[in-house]
């Protein structure tokens, strides 16, 4: 992995093509490269490091126009991050050139075969095997070689392939890794994600799994791996180009933190009509949902933490049994699923490999799938029986912020909807919850006004080398998410724990050099959290408290405090705690000089297992 961009058509300047690649930077990468074919000449340049460094090396070519190009950003999976292992890769004759996202699981055995056939390998990557397989099979034309090669590969792959022998053709291949074709008057594009296409077109074709797209100046054709021609469905992307830009913010992450109130308001406008919750794309019969007794949630990372919040809320207000697993582990459980079971899959991108694998495993057992997702054309939505769309717009920062709170709000609304449908939540109770829930965007705006105070606190705490995040009940997922945000972008070791587990291990870490971030709400667990604060204080731990306003008792025990609005229904508090923890992590990372939008070793969409 991580980013693919390609073009075939009327000649386009290299400078413009690099704009498409720049828009994939948010996915994270350690090297990049470009290849083109023009007047029977192959142009190729690779660089370890950032796209601007590649651009500098290509400064004499930037205004040159090319009819056929492929570009790539790479996160190392096989082979170190260096110029040799960077994409594009090519065959022995340097006539077939390609870029690849994914992992080829059987590349070693294929490489041994090809070495015996006298193929010469230059890199340590799995990708280079594909180029040599294409060389082996190339006889009539490039697409025939592609079909034969695809049959030999095990694993996941999205490919963009060009050849010196056929300088008017760009071929894309998808198996388990996203790939999108863009349609414009200038020609056709390939990209691994929508933002790369926005400067050029909003007309797109989402490739399905095991499909090959053949692009020339004149036409677009799609075939499945059996060489059967497929129907072309061109969709119009509603995302505006500006929504994927930073505007006046120094980082995408900060912009996206401040967008959260608007995202929640958009979510309400989609699913709350005349005081009633309604999901147009749910696609389940009411009778099925009324009889539903159990939900299995599968998600990864931040989406998993949103799912944990949802578990608490669904169990309480819809009286459902909810099991939740990290998607990669869900697949290894021997669950006795059937057609009556519901899997709730949560993913910002809709392309998370482990979540998709969990969904496919569940569908093989005839379970139904409901997804919560931010990308309408994604694999997850297409493979689900029903879905809830989170209207966040593009989330560019690798550390998820606005998608997290939109997922939580969607889960709250789902809990209210199911509770009413199953008649375990009374109408007046639902009205009270919704009334307070609709005030959350305003309360978030009030919280975000504390940005200068949070910045000062973050500067003070950034000197500490280890963090513990604690919460109880529905605040426990907030502690996990706070720890994840901090470690993702500041690289400081941080752990999230239920506060009740503190004496079962984490307390051994606490001393005057350690920070403990505690979410303390005025709820039924308040006294227990006060006891935790006392224990931390006795061991000289530095305490940052996220407290309800006017909580003097907890404030007295903390070194620093950040206040949030006191809610009548504290089950909704994760939506107020989240922006505080996000801003805290952001300013700690900024104070340490970290690369916030593209933290090391992380990708925005984890499209490999």
Rg (C-alpha, Å): 25 Å
| Helical segment count | 20
Number of strands: 26
The overall pLDDT average reads: 93
Question: What is the distance, rounded to the nearest whole angstrom, between the alpha carbons of the first and last residues?
Answer: 11 Å
The CATH superfamily name of the largest domain is: Aminohydrolase, N-terminal nucleophile (Ntn) domain
Tell me the CATH architecture of the largest domain. 4-Layer Sandwich
Note the beta-strand portion.
Answer: 25-35%
Sheet with the most strands, sense and barrel status = 8 strands, antiparallel
Q: So what's the oligomer here?
A: single chain
Number of domain modules? 3
Uncertain stretches:
none
- Kindly identify the CATH topology of the largest domain: Glutamine Phosphoribosylpyrophosphate, subunit 1, domain 1
At the first level of CATH, the class of the largest domain is: Alpha Beta
Tertiary shape? globular
Helix share of residues? 25-40%
- Derived from helix and strand composition plus strand pairing, the structural class reads alpha/beta
Strand order, sheet with most strands: 3-2-4-1-10-9-11-14
Which helices and strands, and how do they pair?
Blueprint: E1 2-13, H1 14-22, E2 31-38, E3 41-48, H2 51-57, E4 65-74, E5 89-90, E6 96-104, H3 107-116, H4 127-137, H5 142-152, E7 155-163, E8 166-175, E9 180-183, E10 187-191, E11 203-206, E12 211-216, E13 220-224, E14 235-236, H6 252-258, H7 260-271, E15 272-273, E16 276-277, H8 286-291, E17 294-299, H9 301-317, E18 321-326, H10 327-330, E19 342-347, H11 353-364, E20 368-373, H12 379-383, E21 386-389, H13 402-421, H14 427-437, H15 440-448, H16 451-461, E22 467-471, H17 476-490, E23 494-498, E24 515-520, H18 526-538, E25 542-548, H19 552-557, E26 560-564, H20 574-591
Parallel strand pairs: 17-18, 17-19, 19-20, 20-21, 22-23, 22-24, 24-25, 25-26
Antiparallel strand pairs: 1-4, 1-10, 2-3, 2-4, 5-6, 6-7, 7-8, 8-12, 9-10, 9-11, 11-14, 12-13, 15-16
